[in-house]
């Protein structure tokens, strides 16, 4: 009996040792010996398409993303050659020095607005570029040339030549954007690749921000970051409603306050540049400022509506028509002038050569002066 017990104890000890060794060195052998649990998974039928979830903006993004491009710019810096570089003794000790500084590069976004290859972007994206390359969302890359630019709205038009089957974004049938509408911002922030962010229209008609001469921005809380400039702001149907152009930020990143140029302005600039290579605006040659309640009281006016003529350029259309400093423009061709910003936009919209009636207040008098509109001088940055 004692012998049987010893044999049993030895067998158990050996079995435990074998299990320990297998579990340590070859645990998969033990797992194979245990039947695996089977999980029942229901799969969609082969070939079936996924339907967007309720409230999803995937269709709008998919419709507009192919038309948004990445823009890469480069500029070769060339500094003045130092006289010592021509000295043989200097070159002997210090070697040859390059004639030019390293090239600078930049990135931004753009929107293909026509199958013919026209691309809308921001002027500040390409204003210093010597070479421009456009990369499509499908991986194709093309060289692009500048057709024209308008620094006063910060817009520029490029063209991709020789490309086929270019996707173009859709323009809305009417300008019906409202505060609270959902919008998507599409671009290439920080160069990470095409990115879509969502937000709402926070405000319309933002101006007096000091960004450009002509300001009428869409404000949105959709995240816009460096690299998004020139990209598309689209509505829930995927139609272009604005060109992303600026952010309010203390750190350089998005704080939920971004600005886009409305599609109505972008379309007008696009059509003028494609037709003539430049943007033509009206001009009368006056300096204007806000008519504050204090200024209105000093001039003897009861209300502060209109634009105060602070200065008149000698020989300008306004000077020839008899406009004087101190006059207050209250109407232009019968349309009321609310403030200096409205006057600037109204005059710019007039065609050079047109005769417009300026209704001004001069003391207690109301005068109608006929002004032959001139052409707004081209800013040096656009030449």
Automatic annotation (TrEMBL):
Query: Can the keyword Protease be found in this entry's annotation?
Result: yes
| A molecular function (GO) term | serine-type endopeptidase activity
**BP GO terms, sorted:** proteolysis
Q: Where is the PDZ domain?
A: 285-339
Highest taxon of the source? Bacteria
Per UniProt, the keywords (alphabetical) are: Hydrolase, Protease
Pfam families from the UniProt entry: PDZ_2, Trypsin_2
Q: Which PROSITE patterns match?
A: PDZ (PS50106)
Protein name, entry field: HtrA2 peptidase
- Say which species the protein is native to: Thauera aminoaromatica S2
